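Exam prep: given the inputs below (a chain plus flavin-adenine dinucleotide), describe the expected output before reading on.
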Amino acid sequence: MKNRYLEVLEDSNVFFKENYSLSKFSYARIGGVVQFCCYPGDVEAFTELIYKFRSRNLPFKIVGKTTNLLFLDSVEYACFILTDFLNDVDFQGNKVRVGAGCLLGDFCKDLALRGFSGAEGLEGIPGTIGGALIMNAGAYGYTISDWLINVRVLDTNGDIRTLERRDLVFGNRSAPSLQGMVVLESEFNFNLGDHSNIERLTRRFHISRHAYQEWVYPNLGSIFVVPGLDIHFSVIEKFSKSKDAKLAVLCRTLISLWNLKPMFFIRRSFPEFNFPQRLMGFCFNRSYMSDLASKCTINTFANKNHSSLEVIKYMANVKMNTSAGLKIENEIVLDSVASVINEEQFKKEKKIIEEELNDK
Ligand SMILES: Cc1cc2nc3c(=O)[nH]c(=O)nc-3n(C[C@H](O)[C@H](O)[C@H](O)COP(=O)(O)OP(=O)(O)OC[C@H]3O[C@@H](n4cnc5c(N)ncnc54)[C@H](O)[C@@H]3O)c2cc1C
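Solution:
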């Protein structure tokens, strides 16, 4: 099989790396080896490579910055195509066409530079435009689909099409109409704003991220999409149904008080003193005590040299301790597996994914 990939790659003249360690290069620093990481230099080389792999039935996965991907360390992956070099940004008046591999942070800086507003909340999302569109990434009330005009994709039949925004369905961290598509580039239309306002908002969101999100250890942001955004209330809801309703009411009230605006300076001055998390851990949820839980929120794991199995167990544990309705946001990668290198671990991982994490 390896030789068949090599044949295509050598014939395509695409830059690639062999036997790349995901525990070193993936965003969460977890995962086994991928036999081939391919870096096409432009859209033509990208689509040509996909055609070639598809026509030879050689499995591959499109990968952005891997900021939402949990790779298994029990397997060896065959082939990833990375969009790093598809990062062109072309402004024409209020419109901008941007490549799938452009980083959201860079894109937001380009917008701010020209005084375009409307994407301030997206600045701190660490992935690419392609990865963001596939899951309708968003934060602080902004989503990537807000100012979208169209997306140029390679569809499952191998045709390049331009899909208009009005024909696409986007949900909360979901983009059903883009599933199975390969995003090549997209076009947006932004309005001119006021530089000082863009700066004020971007700074506010950036600082807020640092206060409330994990940035010491490798992680993948939120594990679950939580209805109502605060995972603590999901824990309390689950607990109130099964155990002590009065304690649940007390906890809900204390957390609501802690979240009030006047408490902001206390919250910001002592970010490591995460009151809701301490309260939850003390009252009912063992997940809060886990070494894997980020100090910022249990909805993020903090990788302190953990295996993919430990992370998956942690995810299942969080889900078990919260009320129904949590949808997994992180993607556990099972595509393009070349071989299993630790059968026992892989079996355990698959069992938990299928029985406890997949939405039934
Ligand atoms: C610290 C941290 C904070 C985060 N904060 C947020 C947040 O506030 N809001 C939010 O929504 N997300 C957040 N995320 C999650 C993540 O950053 C976003 O989902 C991001 O948009 C993923 O982009 P990526 O390039 O890393 O995609 P990847 O993780 O590489 O891939 C994700 C999925 O997209 C697919 N994909 C990637 N590129 C393409 C393409 N060109 N065509 C087709 N499919 C493609 C991949 O196959 C995969 O299925 C956060 C993650 C971290 C680590």
